[in-house]
From TrEMBL:
Signal peptide: 1-20
Any one Gene Ontology molecular-function term assigned to this protein's record: hydrolase activity
Protein origin, superkingdom: Bacteria
PANTHER family noted in UniProt: HYDROLASE ALPHA/BETA FOLD FAMILY (PTHR43194), PEROXISOMAL MEMBRANE PROTEIN LPX1 (PTHR43194:SF2)
Tagged with keyword Ribonucleoprotein: no
UniProt-recorded name of the protein: Alpha/beta hydrolase
Pfam families xrefs: Abhydrolase_6
Gene3D superfamilies linked: alpha/beta hydrolase
Domain named AB hydrolase-1: residues: 61-284
Length: 294
């Protein structure tokens, strides 16, 4: 039995087996993907343990989910990326799966330190971090605080520096499990999904305590602490119908940071983006990653 140590993965075979048995909550994924996927526990700090879903072999990518949601949101694109030659690492946020750690009085810097520990322990080389929605805040914070660990940052459906008032209320309603599904669906459709896409796909998969913890962590961190994403190359992967990214703000990141930013827009998708256009997301990520210096 391997001893737990700071920054080292947990080798408890019983826990590992139990996690692997629950690795695929989505039955549509094929058996080969299930067999290739497993979990590793990383002791990120004395009081923080991070559950990492790992699959594939090759260049490491780290995927970070939206606020209040878990790494399972990436099941389909992780499978596609693994098939295209990547080792995909998906750290579960604190409070989801087997990830544990303080949930109150934390900042984005604490969450970025969790990701840095996973990179050191599992990738053991600089990586591309892909952050979806709130996850892009954590990705950018990690790149600012730990530049030696980051080859590039992909911000997926990242909100504008200032987005329209009222949208955050719809995020809160979407994740409020005490509300009727019909009310939550209205908010999901308004804030996350473009017309013609099934907002019901996100009725499940919310973790209210995690959502609140992350909301407060974001409020406790100055936007200027993380906005630049450090100095690494950046992919600004936008959804064409994302209410958090009005057309008037389309170029704000590229205008501010210039040549290190690659801007790609996926038409017909909303803020959810990943479940709406998984193939287009993967194509954009692969094309950009392969353009980066090795």
């Amino acid at each position: 039995m391997a001893a737990l140590a700071l920054g080292l993965s947990c080798g408890f075979l019983g826990t590992h087996a139990a996690l692997a048995a629950n690795a695929n909550p989505n039955p549509h994924l094929n058996a080969d993907a299930d067999a290739a996927r497993h979990h590793v526990l990383v002791q990120a700090a004395p009081d923080v343990r991070i559950d990492v879903i790992e699959e594939g072999k090759g260049t490491p990518l780290v995927l970070l989910p939206s606020r209040g949601r878990g790494a399972e949101d990436f099941d389909e694109i992780a499978q596609r990326l693994a098939a295209r030659g990547y080792r995909v690492l998906r750290p579960q946020p604190r409070g989801i799966g087997q990830s544990t750690g303080p949930m109150k009085n934390i900042t984005l810097h604490d969450l970025g330190n969790d990701i840095a520990a996973v990179i050191r322990d599992q990738a053991r080389q600089p990586v591309v971090i892909v952050g979806h929605a709130f996850g892009n805040w954590v990705a950018r914070t990690t790149s600012v605080d730990h530049p030696e660990l980051v080859r590039g940052v992909a911000i997926v459906a990242a909100a504008a520096k200032r987005y329209p008032a009222g949208l955050s209320e719809h995020v809160d309603r979407s994740s409020d499990l005490s509300l009727p599904d019909a009310e939550r669906l209205k908010s999901l459709q308004f804030a996350f999904f473009a017309p013609g896409h099934d907002a019901g796909a996100w009725l499940k998969g919310w973790y209210p305590e995690v959502n609140e913890s992350q909301r407060l962590a974001g409020k406790a961190t100055k936007q200027s602490d993380w906005w630049s994403g450090g100095k690494a190359p950046m992919l600004d992967l936008q959804a064409g119908q994302d209410p958090f990214k009005p057309a008037s703000t389309r170029n704000e990141v590229k205008d501010e940071f210039g040549a290190r930013v690659t801007l790609v827009v996926i038409p017909g998708a909303g803020h959810a983006l990943v479940p709406e256009e998984p193939g287009a997301v993967v194509d954009a990520l692969v094309d950009w990653e392969r353009s980066l210096p090795q």
